[in-house]
Design brief:
SAM-dependent_MTases_sf; 7 strands; alpha/beta; 40% helix; single chain
Length: 203
């Protein structure tokens, strides 16, 4: 596993996470593509399957260098906005030419859009070990309107921590959301790391 991957998984707070990703920005794609990174395509295909159509704007949370936005675009989504902690990652994402808007956000700060502004959210590898905490699932779900959908992934490292699937259960078990899709599969096959992809709908 690369030193940056190790650093990301070991990051203890948002400041440390931002620094890792800022420093990693220029080599990030080469490293993870070398490992066969397939989760963006898996998530985009899953969201497309359950979305009412490709015309609704998608908010790509934790968009990084824009690989997730590229996958959403290739899946047929036409309007994609992205947010991320790392300004350096956002610079790389901007060069992809697939985003309408890109915004840097601060960890723990309110997301810069109104509740219900988006009916589709994507969080590809953005919640979990080395990324946003489990509570971010609650933040995103509260922003969705009734019938809104969120696709996200949890990798093997994250699935070892009960808080993340626990946050999902808080929505599913009481009927506040419906689990439309869950599929285990490859994440970074080059290092034998897998991930589960989920699509949930707010009730």
């Amino acid at each position: 596993m690369s030193s940056f991957l190790n650093k990301a998984f070991a990051a203890s707070d948002a400041h440390e996470t931002r620094k890792v990703y800022d420093d990693w920005a220029t080599s990030y794609e080469a490293e993870i593509v070398e490992h066969g990174y397939v989760t963006p395509d898996r998530c985009a295909a899953a969201l497309h399957r359950f979305a009412d159509g490709p015309d609704a704007p998608v908010l790509d949370f934790g968009c990084g260098t824009g690989l997730s936005g590229q996958s959403l675009h290739q899946a047929g989504f036409k309007v994609i906005d992205g947010v991320d902690l790392s300004s350096q990652m956002l610079t790389c994402a901007r060069a992809k030419g697939v985003y309408r808007n890109l915004t840097q956000v601060e960890a723990g700060a309110a997301l810069p859009f109104e509740d219900g502004a988006y009916t589709l959210f994507s969080a590809v590898g953005a919640i979990g070990a080395g990324a946003a905490p489990a509570g971010m699932l609650h933040t995103l779900m509260r922003k969705l309107p009734k019938g809104g959908k969120l696709v996200f992934s949890l990798n093997d490292h994250t699935l070892k921590e009960p808080a993340f699937e626990g946050a999902l259960s808080e929505w599913i078990d009481c009927g506040a959301a419906r689990l439309l899709f869950r599929e285990d599969g490859p994440h970074l096959p080059g290092i034998n790391l897998n991930a589960a992809v989920y699509v949930i709908e707010k009730a």
